[in-house]
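#lab-general

N.A. 3:47 PM
ok so I finally got the sequence cleaned up, no stray characters, all 150 residues accounted for. can someone with queue access submit it? mine expired

B.Y. 3:52 PM
send it over

N.A. 3:53 PM
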Amino acid sequence: MHRIVSLLPSLTLPLLLTSLMAAAAAQTPGAASGNRPQTRPAVAVEGIYSDLRWIPGEADLLGFEFFIVNGGVSGYYAVLQCAEGEATRPALVKAQVTGERIEFEAHSQAGSLCPKARFVGTVSRRGLTGRFDGSDFDITLARRPRFWRR
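B.Y. 4:20 PM
back already:
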C-alpha cells in the first residue's frame, strides 16, 4: 500500500483505480492459488414472473405468478400464487438457485392452488420456464410487473 501512496502525485484517476483494484485483488484470499471469487449469474434471478390473466367474459383468473427474492444469508425464497378461476392465498417456499437454474418444493399450504410438487426451471432475461414434477407441460412466465399492480 505504501508503494501506491508514494505514486499518487503521478497517477491519473483511471490508473489510480486500476492500481487500487490490483492491490486489493492481490490481498484477496484465494487470489494466489488462482481461485476465483463466486460471481453472480449473468441474469438476475430475483424478480416477478407471471402469466396471470383474466379470461374475457368469464370473470375467471388463471395462471401463475412467482416472486423470487434473495433472502441474503438465508438464501432465496419464492412467493407463489396460482389461480384456477379465482385468486388464492400465496405460498412462501424456500428456493435453491444455481446460476440461472431455480428449484423449489411447493408444499401443501391451506388456501393455495399451486401444485404440491417440485418445480425446476431456468431464468432468462425474458422470464422463467420450468415444470412441476408430474406435469405434462412447461410453464413459461414472463418477467413483468406483478399482476395486481396493473
